[in-house]
Design goal:
The protein has helices at 6-26, 30-37, 43-65, 71-94, 97-118, 133-148, 152-162, 167-191, 197-223, 226-245. The chain is mainly α.
Length: 247
């Protein structure tokens, strides 16, 4: 991190503020920020730092919203997600990474277009998706997590959208899911010795920007209507999906 130029550090600061502004307002958004930071920050440093930031941002959001977590939905999510991780590891070993990324991008963009279209119908009512898609989204999120890391949050959003939750419950439950996965991932990185001195230094530099982003996003969250919130989710999904098509 100390080798980055002033322009690169400024770029990282802007990306962090935007990514965690989305995180604070919607419950996720890191999937859009991490690939952008990877352009200037080495992956070996970025991945464990992003895990620490995900852990800290989840705790910041849940400090106020912890009573809004949909415990039952969170509990039913976990086994399907674990199943998906096993599937993801299989395809990771057998399929070409570029093909997987582009296929994921198409799926994410298609879903975002579907949800956005549903917000434009008469009366601005969003048509709920079939309930059977819930375990599918949970399983795919586990598989995508094994393949792409932060891109799993896109399918967390799909899983929760099927439940037709309010924006506050959505954000709280999303944060609880991310917190659980960040803890599990962090234990693995700790055991592998990935939390080096440089990682902790980068985290210390990024932490204040993360807090500012989450705080600003929380102010936006309070002002969003349910319909506007749904459309913000669509925009985030589009931001996440387009880079995958260009890989």
């Amino acid at each position: 991190m100390l080798t980055l130029s002033a322009a690169e550090l400024g770029y990282c600061a802007i990306v962090l503020l935007l990514a965690y502004g989305l995180r604070g307002s919607t419950g996720f958004g890191g999937a859009a920020g991490m690939p952008l930071l990877a352009l200037v920050v080495p992956i070996k440093i970025l991945v464990p730092v992003w895990t620490l930031l995900g852990l800290a941002s989840s705790l910041a959001i849940l400090g106020k919203d912890r009573k809004q977590i949909a415990i039952r939905d969170l509990a039913t999510f976990v086994p399907w997600c674990v199943l998906g991780v096993g599937v993801g590891l299989y395809f990771f070993a057998t399929l070409d990474a570029r093909t997987l990324a582009r296929g994921l991008g198409l799926l994410v963009l298609g879903y975002a277009a579907y949800v956005f279209r549903s917000t434009l119908i008469a009366g601005a009512q969003v048509k709920p998706l079939p309930r059977w898609l819930s375990p599918v989204a949970a399983s795919v999120s586990g598989a995508v997590g094994a393949l792409f890391g932060t891109m799993a949050t896109v399918f967390f959003a799909m899983y929760l959208d099927v439940k037709s939750m309010t924006k506050t419950v959505f954000r709280a439950t999303m944060s609880a899911m991310l917190l659980t996965l960040c803890v599990a991932r962090g234990i693995g990185y700790w055991a592998a010795g990935e939390f080096t001195r440089e990682v902790w230094l980068a985290f210390a530099m990024a932490f204040p920007l993360m807090l500012i982003g989450v705080w600003a996003g929380d102010r936006i969250h309070l002002k969003l209507s349910e319909l506007a919130f749904k459309r913000v989710i669509c925009v985030v999904l589009l931001i996440c999906g387009i880079p995958l098509l260009l890989r």
